[in-house]
Amino acid sequence: MESVYASLLLHKAGQKITEDKIEKILQAAGVNVDKAKVKATVAALEGINIDEAVKTAAIATVAAPEAAGAHKKEEKKKEEEKKEEEAVAGLSALFG
What we know:
about 100 residues; mainly alpha; 4 helices
């Protein structure tokens, strides 16, 4: 994950994302450098529009809680309906 953070830092600074630069950032931060992860990160980011990826991730992060909130409201409504049905069933037992 540290390699991704270093890559984002380089991108924000307008620098080219290379293995050497990522390694230097990680070393400066006192992180043990896993060269295989650094190499994989650089390879994975080739051809990726980082700005677009960050924007998409931000939208997904905002949308997820909204969807969860809608789901909770739906569950609450179903629970209330079930309680009403149980109450009606209980009342009908008194008169039936």
